[in-house]
Every structure is written in structure tokens, then in C-alpha cells.
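--- STAGE predict ---
source: upstream dedup step, 1 unique chain passed
mode: sequence only
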Amino acid sequence: MNWHLFSAFLLITIVLFLTPGPIVTLIIATGARSGTRAALQTVAGASTGNALLLACIALGLSWILKASAEVFDALRWVGAAYLVWLGIQAWRHAGEQSEALAPAPHVHAWRGFVVAMTNPKSIAFFTAFLPQFIDPTLPVERQLLVMCAVSVTVGAFLDSGWAIAAGLGRAWFMKPKHNRLLGRLSGVVLIGGGIWLSLARRPG
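--- STAGE serialize ---
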């Protein structure tokens, strides 16, 4: 692994999973209405969905790199711009509340899986995100495998934190001022990451 790139990848991945989105909103709503256990079941389903989604994306990216290094590099440029755009959106909409219905009993894990698999933002994000941290001088498949495994692990850990927090006291964690601060910090990191990546094109 290129540890310089991997450290940047890890930082932005943590920010991604800390930022409230469809999955986090679903987990919090489930925990607030049905308790911590139900929220953790939702996390298990969402983590399974994330793992499957990332595996499909990684296979596609590996094929693209083998087929055309030029197309892969163009994808990295588009991805850097997309990170900046996401950061701007996170800053603009910091503190806004989104709605999510808590799942019915006994289907928490399935709902989490479906939300993870059908979230277009996750698909677009990871397709643009993972290529930024590929070092073409190293085995591509191994890098993608490590990044996917780390993404799923980090996501499961942080989502579990949201689940426990929701079960213990959703009101404190979802206060507008806390949400606003988290959104703006996320925006700054994503914008900075996109700019840094656009200025740090790797050879290859």
C-alpha cells in the first residue's frame, strides 16, 4: 500500500461515514423508535449491503484500469471535482434535517441492506472516490480489496456508534447546532480533499 494515499483515504472515509445520510438517518430513526438492538440490526444489514456494493464497484474499477489507463485517470479527475461538489453541498445544507421512516418489526436488517444497495449517492461517491487513492505502480486488486474492507469496517463501527447513540438519546445528537457543525466540518474536509487530489495527480 501507498501509506501516504491510504492515510488520506482513511480520513475522508471516516468523514463520509460520520456525515448523516440515508443510512445514518435510517439507523437513528430506528434506534429512536425501536431501541438500540433494532438499530444495530439495521447496521448489520447496511454493512452487508455496503460490502456487496463496494465489491461490485471494485471489480468494475479494476476492469477499467486494465482496459484503459487514460479512462481511469479521467475518472480520477472527475472524482476530485465530485468531492469538491459534495463538500460544497455539505456546507450549504449543514444542519438540515432529513426524514426517514423506521422499519417495521423483524425487517430492520433487510431495510438497512436495501437502503445501502439502492443509495445512488453511495454508488456515485465510491465510484469516484476509490480511484483517487490507487497507486498504479502497486497491485491494483490488493489496494481495492484493502480499501473496500476498511470502508466496510469503518462504516460498521461508526454506524454502530450512531445506533447506540440513537438508542440512548437521539435528541442530543440531532440538535440542529450539532448537525450544522458536523455538516460544515464534513464540507471543509471533502472540499480540501478534492482540491488536494486534483493537485496531486499520481504518475501512470
